[in-house]
From TrEMBL:
Protein name: Carboxylate-amine ligase
Keywords: Ligase
Domain of life: Bacteria
The keyword Transport appears for this protein: no
Residue ranges constituting the PGM1 C-terminal domain according to the UniProt record: 448-497
Organism of this sequence: Petrachloros mirabilis ULC683
Amino acid sequence: MAELGLSERIHHFRQLQNQLRYRWPAINEPGEGDADILVIPSFSVDQQELQKIDGFLHYEERLLFALMRLRNPRTRLIYITSQPLPPIVIDYYLQLLPGIPFSHARDRLMLLPIYDQSLKPLSQKILERPRLLQRIRHSLRPDCAYMVCFNSTDLERDLSVALNIPLLAADPELLYWGTKSGSRQIFAECGIPHPDGSPLVREVSGLVREAAQLWQRQPSLQRMVVKLNEGFSGEGNALLSLRDAPLGSGASLEERRAFVAQQLPNLKFESATESWTHFSQRIPLLGVIVEAFIEGEGKQSPSVQGRVNPTGEVEILSTHDQILGGPSGQIYLGCRFPAHEDYRIQLQELGLKIGENLAQKGVLERFGVDFVIVPPPPGSSEPWQVNAIEINLRKGGTTHPFMTLKLLTNGVYDLSDGCFYSQQGLPKFYVASDNLQREHYQGLLPTDLMDIIAHHHLHFDTGSETGTVFHLMGCLSEFGKLGLTSIGNSPEQAEEIFAQARESLDTETQSTWQACSGQAQATQPISWDNVPIGFA
């Protein structure tokens, strides 16, 4: 397929995707037929933005929940990574499979490391290796094979065409609808409240102009948020404060422009490694928008997740309360499932409306919508003030924990109350994070983590369907960072299980780290104490 031109590749890609419409029952329902799943956990986003995230190369491990699909004895799976995965990590996941002999599952799993830790996206690395492509093609049964990925770009489209198998993800031609500016357009089309803001601009002068006009429309505005159009996980955001501006409400547009231009070099960036010099250079390449920053006592940041099936049907999958951090609380740290009962049904309704709009545009597979909501004053009967913030057309930080719960329990999500129920009819709750990070975790090997899990009984119990499932174990040794999903039968139990896992890790590592480093106290980049989001 390498000899095909761009228009021919796009045409062939869409022909392949059309096959998914007829194969959807076998893909969606375990046990309905044979399936060969090719997992490409490539982070095909702007690599400079990715470098702001500690251990982002190890984020290829985030899709390891896909190994749980091997509980279907008629499923085979190929998982490709930039670097080899520790065997003990693979064993850890396969041992979670209920009712399937470990050896049977392992025989249906092919791991293909590329041994390339360069910053290029994994999909690009695969396309650059003809022998690897040939090996993958020979390992797949074309009539039942399909490909999944973290996010879909031209690279994943070309890989789908090169392997001649369909990609279960959005057509890259439609990715605009998952950008900051595209999201705002869809919110407007759907009549969904969203912050006052600007269209996409690609020059600093345009940013100054749009920010000043926004301020002119809202003279009492305290802060604005400046967003790179394709920023990842809040790392491409920055705050512009207007609180100390020496201008009255009657200031002219020119005066506002002058103040904004003067203050841009003092933006408060969410990423600790970002600077105005670098940020301003990204604006022509990625584009930027500016929005009113939503203020409010007790505000929350929930999200809703859904998907558009190959048949065009829109399905709501979950809601979450996001746990955010960073200088102004815009960086994703983790989540709680489900979102608060006061607004989770409303989130489902808004998510369905957005999903139907995306389906009409031809978007396929997963989408997530982030919101900022502000509670009414105490004693008031007014509804929560809801503002949609952005749409993500990819798997996100909530995908891994929810799919882990779903595949481990084989339960169902109930739209009537927004809760998830196991096959025994028990409601399930969890607290999850990709960002449990402590300096004193550095140096831990995956085998050390397994020792701690066993000693403190932190494992997931398939009998009670409660406990913790760990991931991102490859980040531990170098970055002191890992992910975990703590599942309970009540919100309180999920919180307790999460706290026990964190405290056990701290107990096992902090004293040793202090002794080795000679420091009195370890740095804790992320605090999970007094997090403002919680279950009622």
